[in-house]
Structure formats: C-alpha cells, structure tokens
Write a structure and sequence with these properties.
The chain is mainly α and 138 residues long. The protein has 7 helices and no strands. The longest helix is centred in the middle third of the chain and has 24 residues. The radius of gyration is 16 Å and the shape is globular.
Amino acid sequence: MAQPDINYLAVLVAGFISMIIGSLWYGPFFGKAWIKLMGFTKKTIDKAKKKGMAKSYFIMFVMALLMNYVLAHFVDYTDSATFAQGMLAGFWIWLGFFVTTMIGSILWEGKSVNLYLLNISHYLVVLLINGGILAVWV
C-alpha cells in the first residue's frame, strides 16, 4: 500500500474545526434539543459543570485529531483534489461508518431516533467540511 501524503497542519486545523462545529452544534444550534433528547436535567448539567469538562474536551480533541488523520488517508487514497471531491470522501466515510455504527444507540441503548439523527447529522457536517479542507490543503 502506498504511503499517503498527509498534511499534519491541515489535520490539526481540521481537529479544531471539528471541535468548533461540535460546540456550536451541541450549544447554540441544537443544545436545548440535545439536552432534552439525552434526558438531562438541570441537576445533571450542574453536576457535570462542577466536575469540570477540561479532561473530556481534551480527550474529544485527541479523538477529533485521530478521526481527521484517518479521513486525510481516505482523501489521499481517493486522489481527492477539490473541495467537492473531499466532501464526497467525507460523505462515504460518514455513510459507511457513522450512520451504520451509531444505529446501535437506538437498537441497544434505547436512545431516540431523533437523537440518532441529531448526532449523525453533526458528523455529516464535520466530515463534509473537513474532507473538503483536507483535499485542497496539500
């Protein structure tokens, strides 16, 4: 297998973009709906705030870097060179891996279809944008 040509600065930026999109998605855009769908209460939220979220955000950032590093491989393997081609690579990753594996939240965890749709939509946006960025930022 050929070694991919990965732009690590682009992966780092894509990691930050993932976090920004997530904070907007689960904050001002759909935060209230997400809280309701998760069944959180004010007490639950206050407890999480008191505990501190720095460790969770750090771990999520590391996972965002890993996700975008793997996405960069797929973008390179598909020879995606335009924003649209990168978006298409991101779409297929989303459809093949996120849509399929996250369905378990409905089947086995008892989460609602609406929560599933909210979560997979978040990853669709992230993978489309970052796929495009990784494709053009060589």
